[in-house]
Specification:
Layout lengths: L13 H20 L5 H19 L7 H7 L4 H4 L25 H21 L12 H13 L4 H13 L2 E3 H5 L11 E3 L9 E2 L10 E7 L2 E7 L3 H5 L3 E4 L10 E2 L24 E2 L3 E4 L1 H24 L1 H5 L3 E5 L1 H4 L3 E6 L5 E8 L5 H11 L8 E4 L7 H9 L4 E4 H12 L5
Parallel strand pairs: 12-13, 13-14
Antiparallel strand pairs: 1-9, 2-9, 3-8, 4-5, 5-6, 6-7, 10-11, 11-12
Length: 423
């Protein structure tokens, strides 16, 4: 939202319009496919979101209700009006919902990531108003409130609470209540999503432990099911399984994907192919809301692994007071502070923020709007499978005295500075 000099009436920028359109299509797709909604609720929500889109499209774009419903099954690019600038996005050639009626990972990530950027823009403009309701900002609000709940109990307790959220995104109610999280944090756990249930069962991802999505498939006339993590990297590297339908007993899963990382990246690789999950009862089970899982648990696994691996590699130096590795310092000002004494006796400090964005251009724009990392980190580190983002992020980071690197490249740099061999 922008204003012109001498005019207090707000107007849409291209980014504001894109974000509203993108978000509204996601909510409309959810309204179209969520089984819990009755016919009257479904049509009321669809009509409301149709009105929101007409407002964002502007009077020059004609969008009948029937065409609006048909567009919900198309690509994001096909949903946008011709006047909208698409140059700020890597790709928009993906669908909002998949064949099973579930919002796709790319569409969900784009909505959340652009929400974060919109928040930055709003703060810089000192704009106390918003075109977006609490419902529309709920994933962002959940994320912020969750962090606030685990803050204020001291630095050590914050690390324990944050690690618990990362390691326990789902489970039975009784077990979750014994993990020591603040009681208010449990309200961010909800019943297992409908798209992750088979009869009365659900299956945890073998990487992140969040409920995997269940899809019905047919091959050669035979019916079978696929259980795979909604985070595509986990599904591609082992968290993908198939099973035959059962009449009453829990199904037995069989792996349907394998992945072998490069040797130099093996130490930081999150392997989902070493176990086969057992079915768990849906009754009395809970899972973190999707937004909290995607932007707390998924990157948090990388943050924990980097901390664990570097702590092991630099352990001997730490015992001699020549290395110190701190996870989530100052209650998450950034993700890592690593201090090592080099061979020449000089002290080197690495302050690190780990980012796992699907859409690199949105992350780069966020850095520009923040004039660098908002917590003051000097290194921006992405998971190894995001290596193709490094050229763009390096160019952006260089403007603010920062460096961008993949996790393995960064870990090698730290070890080389400390005079120890990489894993």
């Amino acid at each position: 939202m922008t204003t012109t000099a001498g005019d207090e009436s707000p107007t849409f920028s291209h980014f504001d319009a894109f974000r509203l359109i993108n978000f509204t299509f996601i909510k409309a797709c959810e309204a179209l496919t969520t089984p819990e909604l009755g016919p009257h609720q479904r049509i009321e929500r669809l009509m409301r979101y149709h009105g929101d889109l007409l407002a964002a499209y502007g009077p020059a774009v004609h969008l009948p209700f029937g065409e609006f419903r048909r567009k919900l099954r198309g690509t994001v690019d096909g949903l946008l009006p011709g006047w909208l600038d698409r140059s700020a996005f890597d790709t928009l050639d993906f669908t909002v919902v998949d064949a099973d009626g579930c919002v796709t990972g790319s569409a969900f990530d784009l909505q959340w990531e652009t929400t974060q950027l919109h928040r930055i823009l709003g703060r810089l403009k000192r704009n106390g108003r918003s075109r977006f309701t609490d419902e529309q900002l709920q994933d962002e609000i959940d994320q912020d409130q969750m962090y606030e709940l685990v803050k204020g109990r001291g630095d050590e307790q914050y690390v324990r609470d944050r690690a618990t959220l990362v390691e326990c995104p789902a489970g039975d109610r009784k077990t979750l209540s014994t993990r020591g999280l603040p009681l208010n944090a449990l309200r961010y756990y909800e019943p297992i999503p409908y798209h992750s249930t088979y009869r009365t069962w659900w299956f945890p991802c073998t990487v992140c432990q969040w409920p995997m999505k269940i899809s019905k498939r047919v091959s050669g006339g035979d019916e079978y099911y696929r259980a795979a993590c909604l985070y595509s990297r986990h599904a591609d590297t082992g968290a993908s399984f198939v099973f035959r339908p059962t009449s009453g007993s829990a199904p037995e899963l069989h792996p349907d994907s394998t992945f072998e990382p490069m040797l130099r990246e093996a130490a930081l690789f999150l392997d989902g192919s070493t176990t086969v999950p057992e079915a768990r009862p849906v009754e009395d089970s809970l899972a973190l809301r999707r937004g909290v899982w995607r932007y707390t648990c998924v990157p948090g696994l990388h943050e924990l692994r980097l901390h664990q691996v570097l702590s092991k590699q630099l352990g001997a130096l730490a015992e001699r007071g020549r290395a110190r590795i701190t996870l989530w310092p100052m209650q998450d000002a950034y993700d890592h502070r690593i201090e090592v004494t080099g061979a020449g006796g000089g002290v080197h400090v690495f302050t690190v923020d780990v980012k796992d964005y699907t859409h690199a251009r949105v992350l780069a724009d966020s850095l520009q709007r923040n004039d660098g990392d908002k917590g003051g980190a000097r290194w921006l580190v992405v998971p190894d499978h995001r290596a193709d983002q490094i050229p763009l992020l390096s160019l952006t980071c260089s403007k603010y005295g920062m460096k961008a690197a993949t996790m393995t490249d960064f870990a090698e740099t730290v070890c080389r500075t400390a005079g120890v061999a990489w894993a």
